[in-house]
Design goal:
By secondary structure, the chain is an alpha/beta fold. It has nine helices and nine strands. A seven-stranded mixed β-sheet has the order 3-2-1-4-5-9-8, sandwiched between helices. Strands 6-7 form a two-stranded antiparallel ribbon. It is globular and about 50 Å long.
Length: 238
């Protein structure tokens, strides 16, 4: 059987419960986005990394919450039938896994990218991906799970990902999670590692999203460029 993310997600017995918990957090996550970038009529917003095969509107929390759907473009590497059946008025751009994103410099006012960067491969690929996000967006909101959260939410396995990377990948393979044992498909980030991916000249801050008192997600926020200039091009301190 082909090794796909869906195949290995089925191995996690408590997955249904985890999905309910995650969905309860999505409204909070959208609230963090809207606080950083209050939606404006007429601005162009890209939802980057959309899972296009889902046929339930609740699987697309950003599109379901965003008040100006005419502003939105979605993009992802999967086929778009599911997304288009839920949101027929929102254009969907299919991407290749590797290479430059097919958008012009500064084409979007904001790029929203939820839990994608940990799936693009090596640190070098993650660095290239983040640079592309910053290139095509005048502002960006990028989220990723925090490696030091005690439960690894892709596999619902606790603590094993605290081991050195080669060790936890070997354990994942032994447990049948070959897909997520591969760096190509899952490369978790700490806050320090996420900060190190950003181009030296970029202005950003990394915020912490908490669940049960612990940092479950990291939020990389690059402010609107016009705001950055007004602030004297000052980079937030770490």
């Amino acid at each position: 059987m082909e090794h796909t993310r869906e195949n290995y997600q089925r191995k996690a017995a408590p997955l249904a419960l985890v999905r309910r918990i995650l969905r309860s957090q999505q409204s909070r996550l959208y609230g963090r986005y809207a606080e950083a970038f209050p939606p404006r009529p007429g601005e162009r917003v890209l939802d980057l990394g959309v899972t296009g095969s889902v046929r339930d509107r609740s699987g697309y929390f950003f599109e379901s919450c965003y008040p100006y759907p005419a502003n939105l473009t979605a993009a992802g590497i999967e086929t778009s039938e599911g997304f288009e059946s839920c949101f027929p008025g929102i254009p969907f751009v299919r991407l290749s896994r590797d290479g430059r994103l097919p958008f012009a410099d500064g084409e979007f006012d904001v790029v929203f990218c939820n839990a994608v960067i940990e799936h693009v491969g090596s640190r070098a690929r993650q660095r290239e991906f983040l640079a592309e996000v910053l290139r095509i967006g005048r502002a960006s909101f990028v989220t990723t799970p925090n490696r030091w959260y005690p439960v690894e939410l892709h596999t619902v396995l606790p603590l094993l990902h605290y081991l050195p990377t080669p060790a936890y990948r070997a354990v994942y393979r032994r447990l049948g999670f070959e897909f997520f044992a591969s760096e190509e498909h899952l490369n978790l980030l700490t806050e320090t590692e996420l900060r190190a991916l950003a181009p030296v000249s970029s202005e950003f801050e990394v915020l912490r999203h908490r669940f049960l008192g612990l940092t479950s997600n990291l939020l990389f926020v690059s402010p609107r460029r016009e705001a950055a200039k007004a602030d004297g091009e000052r980079r937030p301190s770490a």
